[in-house]
Fold each of these.
Amino acid sequence: MRALYGLYSHPDSAQRAVDALRVAGVPDRQIVVISSEPFEEYEFSHRDKATWLYKIACLGGATGLAAGYWLTSTTQQAWPLATGGMPIVAMWPNLIVMFELTMLGGMLATAVTLFVTAKLPSPKPALYDPEVSDGKILVGVEEPPGSVIDAVKQVFEGAGLREKKK
Amino acid sequence: MSPTTARQIGDDLLRPLLHTSWRFYLVVALLGGIVASGLGAWAYQVYQGFGVTGIRWPTYWGFYVTNFVFWIGISHAGTLISAILRLVNARWRRPVTRCAEVITVFALMIGAMFPIIHLGRPWLFFWLIPYPSERQIWPNFRSPLVWDFFAINTYLAGSLLFLLLPLIPDFALVRDRTTGWRRKIYGVLALGWQGTTKQWHRLESAMQIMAIAIIPVALSVHTVVSFDFSMAPVPMWHSTIFGPYFVAGAIFSGIAALIIAMAFLRRFLHLEDYLHPVHFENLGKLLLMMSLLWTYFIFAERLTVWYGNEPSEMAVFWATQRGEFAPLFWTMIVCNFVIPFPILSLRRLRTIAGTVVASFTVLVGMWLERFLIIVPSLSHKQLPYSWGVYRPRPVEIIITIATFAAMALLYVLFSKVVPIISIWELKVGGQSMPVVTPKEEREADGLWRARP
């Protein structure tokens, strides 16, 4: 993979670079912004906001609920202790286990979805610069189309153009 | 935030990881010695049998179950407080959250050990697991102890995720700042984190969901622990107030533990620039609120029992008010209300030192409270022929002390290998926040939508 990038000290400059790349005709999906902290106040951090995380968490919760019901009812029927006239499958106490497994399912689904959608673990990140950890913001273009390479280089010149080859 | 400030934050918070003083080894050796003596006491108990403890008819729950309830309560400090502060977006939370979340994980691990220690013959633990055996073991799946298993393990799993997920970006930072074997280890732990906008957004969304989910789980855990008692027809246990009463007590002791941990971190890791007096003041106010709430619950519980005048309950009531347990009961009242109330009410006294003093007394008071819930009731059951006396033996006392040392040791070791304050969250806290009113926020949101 080939990538061109620049490092910016301030999020305002990074935002201007992203805007300039768009004006130069670089598709949004090829623009990468990497930082050591989230910048909620800037538009560039809102580009990948669409997520199924919440829905998948609910689905995980529903799966946990079903598993909780199955586990409690099955075990109670498989080991039917004498209950003195009380029901063998007792919903009041079972609600506790069902609740816990619902929440566990939701939390585990959330964590798994985070790892999958954020592409973690990633043995060798495609584009990265250790200076990001010192507070710099990396704005880059992955696989820049030949038609815009000059424009991209011009955008990054002020920030010290850097290139990453395969 | 400027790169200079960001680098300064990184330098300050990574210093404990990269530099080790002789004090660290001394503390580890001291705490490790106490923990080793606790393990030795446990080995002695296993070898000699459960008879070396003071646990015998009719009081089958003593120090071990007291410690179990106490440590599960302490675990409420972290994740619950962190989740609430995260959801309400309290900006002062940022240096506090990780210190708190760590307490939860370690306190749960220590608390969960006590049912095993209490088994007496821990190698037969698998008898509790339902498997097709010749002995026809039929576990009771309706037992509150089964609820405990699910509640504690769910809370532990959720708290671990809540602690570990925000650690990934900080591991990436340590990876970039270190060399050699450290770089390799932290590189693995960082999971290849880059810090793309997508990763940040997913992480923040995941933390939001985790915060929403973990609050009811945290409340359920101590409610379920209270059910271990309130489901039994034992005098002064069979009470509907036990759920919220236990939860309030747990949060109360948890905040106290958090304040003490923060004070030690501030002092010994030189985090004065990050853990400010305002953090102690705010947590002090929370502690004050919980002290009042706990006192209200004690009053409500005691008044109801006294007014009901049921003989078996009154036996326990008077044993704690003016009988053999009275010194412990009144010490508990002094520790949980009489001392903390004035210290935390008066602004002049609500300093770092003041909140730490109040927190120490609260921890003592809350341990006594757990003991006074368990032992007086079991030693004064309905029929006087089944009354008895519980005297803890040295082995129980040593194991109890060792668990406090174990908590401190785990905390010290953790803060040696992981930034104890979330670096990236602190950087976010340092960003200028131009949006201040709801109207401005709506306008800014509209601007974001309007942009390409």
Amino acid sequence: MRDAIITLDGATRRFKRGHAVITAVDAISLAVERGTFTAIMGKSGSGKSTLLHLMSGLLTPDAGRVELLGNDAGQLSDNDLTLLRRDYIGFIFQFFNLLPSLTAAENVALPLLLARRPRGQALSRAREMLATMGLADRVDHKPDELSGGQMQRVAIARALINDPPLLFADEPTGNLDSVAGEEVLLLLKDLQTRQGRTIVMVTHDAKAAAYGDRIITLRDGRVQQDIATGGVAV
Amino acid sequence: MSVKHGILGILADGPRHGYELKTQFDGLTGGLWDLNVGQIYSTLERMRKDGLVALEESGEGADERKTYRVTDAGREELDGWLQAPPLRPRPLRDEFFVQLGLLIDRNRPAALALINGVRRVHHLRLASLTRQKVLLARSQERGRIHRELLLDAALLHVEADLTWLDRCEERLGALGGGPQAERPPP
Amino acid sequence: MNGLYTSLSRTYLLAKKRRTAMTVIGIALGVTMVTAVALTTAALVANYRSVLEGIGGRAELQVTSIGGLGFPAAIRDEVAVVPGVRAAVPAVSSGAPVLAGERKAAASFYGILPDQEALVRDYRITDGRLPLAAGELAITDELAERLSAGPGDTVQLLSTAGFAPFTVVGVFRAQGTVRGTLGPFGVLPLAEAQRIFGRPGKLDTVDLLLEPQAKRAEVKARVEQVLAGRARAGTPADRARDMDSLLDSLIFALGIAGSISLFSGGFIIYTNVGMGVTERRRELSVLRALGMRRGEVVRLVLGEAALMGAAGAAIGLLLGYGLAVGMVEQLTRQFLAIYGIEAAGARLGPANIAAGLAVGIGVAVFAAWGPSRETVAISPVEAMRQGELTRPEERHGLRRALIGGAITMLAGAGIIAVWTWGDLSSPLTRQIGGGLLMAFLLGIVVLMPVLLPLLNRWLLRPLAQAMFGFTGRLATDNLMRHPRRTAATASALMVSLTFMVAMGGFAAAQRATLEDWFRQTVGWDLLVSSSYELIGAQVEMDPAFVEDLRAVSGVRIASPQRFSRIIMGDGAPAFLQVFDHTLLPMYSSPPLDQGDWQEGVQRLQAGGAVMISTPLADRLGLGMGDELELLTPSGPQRFRIVGIQKELAPFGGTVHLDRRDYVTYWNDQTVTVVALVTEDGADPAAVQAEIMRRYGAERNLTVQTNQGYWDAMMERVAGFYRLMDGLIWVSILVSGLAIANTLFSGLLERRREFGILRATGARRAETMRVVVGEALSTGAVGGLFGLGAGLLMFLLMVQSSQQFNGTAVDLRFPWVATLTALGVALILAPMVGLLPARWAARMDVVEALRYE
């Protein structure tokens, strides 16, 4: 057994929808090993996003335990969870979620700036990061001047600026055309295989999930299928 | 009969012997079309009888090789085929269709389990195709576009199969587990 | 189609409850502001008007005295026979304190002829009858209640010779033509009034009723001929000019406050409704794509705006009424009490309701019109596409800068021109000046979005960064995304602060000026008056009493002083101050703008000379050595001007005269106050006690110490500014709430951005800092512009104070007002931001990320 970076033990999360209580994640137990690429699949409403949020500490479980980077997420204060996210976790979202008032470089530097690192240093690191993403000529553009693929690469650069060992991607290709989507997936695959980062990705696209070396399919808040694709070697 | 036409196409660039033909055919189909040398030779023999290719023997003794070249009739056949769309869509033939058909009314849980099993196979297939794609993308080799297109075709087909499996599961799930009690599985 | 509209609107408004609520609250705040100020002003103006109406009743012409001392009763018989005059009804009036047992009240009293009175005024008697015989009195129900007295009870009226007992014979309801007489009052037989108020053989007014076909102007001319300068004739409206010019200033200031409120309230509504429509752009485009015509979409949006406008207006009317009653009215009462006027309460009338609805609905519809036109102007497809990133506001930078700059410059130049060359005592000029001031501020508002980016680079960003680090910078950048919205929100605060700085600064400068004057001029130790200083009703004392006071041990000087209002040759009033100049120089040396005090005193002692104040000299176009003609009861008299005084009393100019001249020409020996200087070593407090012991009860004296007088004077000045302050703080409060409201609405729009911040590692405290930083920046913009405009206005007010207010004010930098304004901008605004900030910090990250 390799080193687990995330461990869920009977993790449960419920939501209220009107008067009904929905169990979005129903007593799921699983472990994510360091350096793996896990894809979480499922139809909308299957609980896959909630599972991602639980795994990443954006949500805490109503019941059960979530152990994240060696911490019991349920026991951490909001501040500690925030710091954990800031320093050890990167997020990539479907809607890119860039701040429209900031340039690409500033968006990338955001986590560093929030951590009160010197501005010049933060921005030059952001520029380097963008250059490695092939966006050297876009550093001073505002998000509305970038294409979808470029925006997502900026978002990935932002997720990586703190050199986090753990990356979460929520439908990262959902808003991209297939070519841009593949580029993003290749990038993620490289981040795993060449840089040894752990990636957890939610997707409803089987082709995207095929980049993972483990595919977990959810149904009604439970794990329906957990497939090891044996692809770690690539 | 596209093996025949594939061979004609390769020979149009110049004479080849049997093994060369096999290698180039694999390249053409991205290795997705399992074909052995025997099938190549039997096809070539049929084409020779039909006058589409001619056999040229060269070398002596241990060096002796059988080389094939295309005839004028072969060229004509190739040109006609290249420009003609297929008359029928690709046939869908899968043993799972038969399995499913037999299980639906007899044992629905077994049908659902089978669907899951098939899905696992498809996911593994997708993963292996994706691996090839990743390797291809990293290799930066020239002219990889054709292989990428073929891999995409395969990926999209498997994806379609997976989508269909989801639908099967959904429809069967909606029916409930009725027929199981009446007839136990054979 | 109508049914569809309603259901679409209802669905939208209910689905976006928070958005709708914020918009309605925004409208409500705007209407609150307008209503509170309007009600306060209305209450004040109504009181003011009713004074005038009450005095005149149905009279079409009125004969009044020149010096405020009455005129010979014979004049009534002379004017009664002037052709065109149907009736001449005489009256004597005075304010006096009245006592019933332990209860005290201040009231106006009218000496009337009961048989003739009904011609001009209606009395609705509820109990008893009008007074007919000596010692009888009728009072309003209000006064009866206050004194807890009814028919048959005895009350004491303070007269020139002390208390006089009266029996109440009637109680009437103050209404109709007498309601206006304002607050509590009483009537007594004319002869009695002449006796107790020291006006034997004299009248204060004669109300004239004209023959139906007579022309008023002609009759007036004929009456004036008969009067020959012994008294004057005027229409009741002319009396308006007799009122303190300070009241005029107040009405003007209230008018400006009303404009501010309309201005700020309008902006608050505009911003909120505009945001709502912009946010809905995509949804509206779907409707367009589905086949709704442009006009229909616009109508739908405007209908919703009107609906929200009506709801907001309803809330705003209630809040505004509450504010007016709870806070502002209190201040009005305090202020009016100084003038012996009891304020009627604020009333929410149909006109206010109509105005509130008009402002709420009108501005909301106007605000919705622009964005809704913009929405239907672009193709629906384009509008639907811009989902992810809101397009930045279109920038008409240059055009806007030109328009804004032009308005600001023109209005600024206009203000300077009016202030420099205009006649600021005329209401029209003031209205033009006020209008220009509004235009000037409007120009700044138009200009502000263009200036914001510059301001951001040089001030806001460094400021926010220094205070909140990177999150602060995020805040200012957020604001810059909507320069127009930011400008509109900051404008409300700007306008409020402008007036705060100007008024506060002016108040402080005036106080300092008065302090200087007081040190030089008021050298007496005690001031004796037979009056209730608090209510302003004064009763003159007889000269013999001055001698009595001189005899009190410890008194070195007893100096009689007589003050009254006189009408100058130009028909406008002035304040007549009469001193004994053998005594005055021993304890006072008032500052002169022209002339020498010692020399002037000698000339005054010699007789035939006056000193006048600078504004009066300017008004009449007279200077040193010129002759001033005064209308005296013995006919016009000419006096040589021997000094020009600095003016510090807001009574439209001062005439300073020697007592001997006054006694000669006015034939009046009475004394308003007696200034006492105590012997060296004598304790003023002991002397005060002694005087009160000997004469206090008999004459109901007030003896003020030097300090007490200063305090009372300050109280008068403060009363005015407290009222202004109240209104200003109401508008600042509403502006602050508007900032919070706009921030809230902005947060609703940008929920996901806050989700991203939180997800990428911003702690709750840091998220709060972003929002507080936005509030701070908005406050700083409003504060900066408000401070600038306020200082400018302050400068103009000080420079024109002499003409504007009738009093001179020395220029002093308004530190306190400046610091207060800065405090509001840099401390209050961020504090207001805490509320939305907490909401932002507590937002569920996952929810926020999902928010579209």
